[in-house]
Amino acid sequence: MVSIRCKMLVKAELERLGLHYQTVELGEAEIEEDISADKWNELNLALKKSGIELMDDKKSILIEKIKNVIVELVHYSEKPLKINLSDYLSQKLGHNYTYLANLFSESQGITIEHFHILHKIERVKELLIYDELSITEIAWKTDYSSVAHLSNQFKKITGLTPSFFKKIKRKRRSTLEDI
Asked: Which of 54, 71, 88 is the endpoint of a domain?
């Protein structure tokens, strides 16, 4: 679950089934009562129709938590990270980073760091498209040490420089406006 819409959908399904929840957060729901196998299956089927999958495997749940912490950090946090990502994840999830990193890489086929970079670049693209901030401001907001570092990583991932990406977006937009 990575969006507010997903959280709303999960809450609605829980309420429809008469299940009481304490919290529904990104990637997890805390339900007050024990769920029968029938209710679990009904909830699972209802959520699958909307593209949400229930998990009961502890390793899969932990992988989803890693993803959600990174998504929340990159897309929804306004404050730059003041400690290493590895320390942050270890503190937030209560596990040794080496364990988290090995589990994540084995399951996802990429490192946690690469997953983090991919999300940072997506956030940079989003901010470039909004066209409200300079590249320097975007670098600061997305926790890059410099514009050069952002530009190098952006080009490595997308094949384009941030300024060229911004230019392409403007061209597309003006072309659409002319129609």
From this structure: 54
* Interval 79-95: pLDDT, tens: 878 899 999 999 999 99
- At 178 the pLDDT is 47
The kind and range of the H/E element at 171 are: helix 162-178
Tell me the CA distances in angstroms from 107 to 47, 63, 74, 91, 103, one per residue in order.
23, 8, 21, 21, 6
State how far the Cα of 111 lies from the Cα of 118, in Å rounded to an integer.
Answer: 11
Total domains, the chain = 2
- What's this model's pTM, rounded to 2 decimal places? 0.73
Q: Which of 86, 157, 81, 155 is nearest to 119 (CA)?
A: 157
Rounded Cα–Cα distance for residues 99 and 177 (Å): 51
Range of the domain at 160: 58-179
